[in-house]
Amino acid sequence: MMLPSILDRFTLNGLNGNHACYVTAPVSASLSDLKDGSWIRLFQPDVARSLAAQLMLALDYVHAQGIVHGDMYLGNILLKVPLNFDQLSPERLHEKYGAPELEPVSRLNGKPLPPGVPTHGVPPIWLGKASEEIVLLETRILLADFGEAFILFILSKERKFESCTPLVIRPPEARFEPNEPLSFSSDIWTLTCTIWTIIGQRQLLEGFLATEDDMTCEHVCQDTLSILPLDWWEKWDALRQKFDGDGEPRNRKSFRSWDDRFEDSVQQPRQDSGISPFNEKEEALFNVLRLMLSFRPANRPTTNQILKSEWMVKLALPEYRKSQNNI
C-alpha cells in the first residue's frame, strides 16, 4: 500500500482545547529530506525509476477513487522505514539512530513556565540518509498529506478552484482559468515537475522568490512548452514587459531549452558525482513528460495512459517490480 493508513486515533485534551490525533506508521524521511541530507542531491538511476513508478501507481489509485491530490511535491512523498524497523529493541534503536536528546524549554523573559507547559522538548529523530545512499530495496514510498485533496464525482459535486501547490510547480490553469475547477490534469502537471526532480539534481522549472509573472515567463522561455494559448496571452498583463511584439523574450538569458536543463540538472551532476548518467533509452521518458506539460489541461495524458508509456513499461515499472521481488 502506497498511501498512509490510520492505526489508531484519540483526542488530546489540553489547555488550548481538544485536539483530534491520528496515529500512522513511522516513516524514515520525505524525498525532499533525503535530498536535503545530501551534498549532490541525486538518487541512483534505478532508485529514481522505482520511485517514479511507485508515485505514478499511487496517483493512479488516488485518481481511480475520484480524488485529486492537489499538493504533490517531494515533501509529501515519504520513504517507509526499513523492513526490520519494528523488530528493533529500544536499545538497538538508540544505538543505530541515536538516543533521544532533551532540550529545555524556557521563557524569553526568564519567568517560570506556566502550568501545563513541559520543561523539556524532544527533537525528532533523523531516520533518513543521503539520497545517493538509498538502494533499490529501500524504495518503498507513501504518498501523504491529503489536506488539499478534493473529491470529484461524476457531476463534479465538489469543486476546487484555488491551487495551494508551491508556485514553482503550480499548473498554469490555476492562474489563467481561475473560474474553471481544478481536476486530475492539475495533478499531472505537478507530477511531471516532481518526476523531473526525482531524476535530476534540481527542479525543471526554477523560481527562487518568484512571482506568478516570473513563473509564466519560465514556462514560456524554454522549447518544451512554447507559447501560451492565445486567450491566455491576452489575459497576461505583464506580457509586453516580458516579450516583444514578435513573442520573443526581452531577456534572452532567461531562455533555457529542455536539453540545457537536462544537461545541467541531470547528466552533468551525475557525471561529476560518479553516478551513471541516463542513457539514450531515457528519451522515452522525455517524450511522455512533454505531453504531461501541455498547457491545456485536456491535452495532458491520464495516469493510466502514462503507466502504459514506453518509459514506464520498459524501465520504471521493472525497477519497481525488482525491488518488490527482492523484498
From TrEMBL:
Extract the GO molecular function terms from the UniProt entry: ATP binding; protein serine/threonine kinase activity
The chain positions of domain Protein kinase read 1-312
Q: Which GO terms describe its cellular component?
A: nucleus
Answer yes or no on keyword Transmembrane: no
Keywords, A to Z, come to: ATP-binding, Kinase, Nucleotide-binding, Serine/threonine-protein kinase, Transferase
Q: Which InterPro entries match?
A: CLK_kinases, Kinase-like_dom_sf, Prot_kinase_dom
What name does the UniProt record give this protein? Answer: Srpk
What species was this sequence derived from? Answer: Penicillium cosmopolitanum
